[in-house]
Amino acid sequence: MSSSPQILIEQGVAHLTLNRPTQRNALDIPTLNAISAYLEDFAENPAVRVLLIDSVGKTFCAGADLAEWAAAEQRGELESYGWTEAAHQMMDQLYRLPKPTIAAIHGGAVGAGMDLALCCDMRIADKTAYFKAGYTSMAYCPDAGASWHLPRLIGEEQAKRLLFLDEPYNAEQAFAAGLIGEICADGELATLAQERAARFAAGPTLAFAETKTLIRDSYSRTLAEQLLAEQAAGLRCGRSQDAMEALNAINEKRPPQFIGR
Q1: I want to staple 249 with a disulfide (CB 3.0 to 4.6 A). Which of 186, 202, 256, 259 is the partner?
Q2: DSSP per residue over 195-217, as a string?
Q3: Are residues 56 and 189 in contact, defined by beta-carbon separation less than 8 angstroms?
């Protein structure tokens, strides 16, 4: 059974809520496809200036929907039923979204649920949060981006520890390792996440997009190449309406009012 994610777009914030609490917000193919469709719209929609992802229930996301997986195996279609392709498309879209993305994590982020959070620019968690790879315990390997994100976030050895041992990292461990950037008390997550999202929504959207792209592409460039890319990106930012507004605000000794263009 699938229930589409809930969407609210308000004051520049696209609030996407995973909405399968009975299934611990597991990602089945209809859910993955729904998120992909939303992301395609968000990328081009000027009303969206930041994406906030959270969940209903006690679990952020339990990963792949094992009931859907088992049904495919019974049909003899485990290798071809399409989950991996749908998940990979969605994860890549989320990672490349040219706007800030925030995951607000309550409860478990397991397997592909952890990978979903890792694709976001920032992760905020409350004290209930924990991360678990979930792959090797099932004699499986990462299949939704963990092998790419984890070494970059926490280093190769720590990534191997998390993946090989498959032990959960609680919120404090995740913060110490670098998996999340902020921890708050239970009950405060929604407020904190909304505050962060509102701040980004009021910011210079184009500059955020150019910064995300520069960071993402830096891994495949030399410093000289990166400096050239920064110069080109800086010219694009400098021609924006927000850049002009920033200069005017400085001259007029007032806070800037960015419009995202």
Answers
A1: 256
A2: HHHHHHHTS-HHHHHHHHHHHHH
A3: no
CA distance 78 to 118: 25
Chain centre to alpha carbon of residue 181: 13
Cα(60)–Cα(128) distance, integer angstroms: 10
Helix, strand, coil percentages (3-state) for the chain, rounded to 5, are 50, 15, 35
Cβ neighbours for 161, distance < 8 A, ≥ 6 positions apart: none
Cβ atoms 18, 30 nearer than 8 A: no
Token pair for 6: 């809930």
pLDDT per residue as tens digits for the range 176-192: 999 999 999 989 999 99
Q: Is 187 left (phi over 0), alpha (psi -120 to 50) or beta?
A: left
Angstrom distance (rounded) from CA 134 to CA 118:
15
SS3 26: coil
Greatest alpha-carbon pair distance for the chain in Å reads 68
**CA-based torsion, 92, 94, 99, 101: positive or negative:** negative
12-70 pLDDT per residue, tens: 999 999 999 999 999 999 999 999 999 999 999 999 999 999 999 999 999 998 888 77
Question: Smallest Cα–Cα separation from 56: which of 134, 121, 115, 4?
Answer: 4
Q: Position of tokens 């679990």?
A: 59
The DSSP code for 104 is: E
Q: Cα(182)–Cα(20) distance, rounded to whole angstroms? A: 25
Distance between CA atoms of residues 260 and 202, nearest Å: 8
Q: Cα dihedral angle (59, 36, 197, 208), rounded to 10 degrees?
A: 140
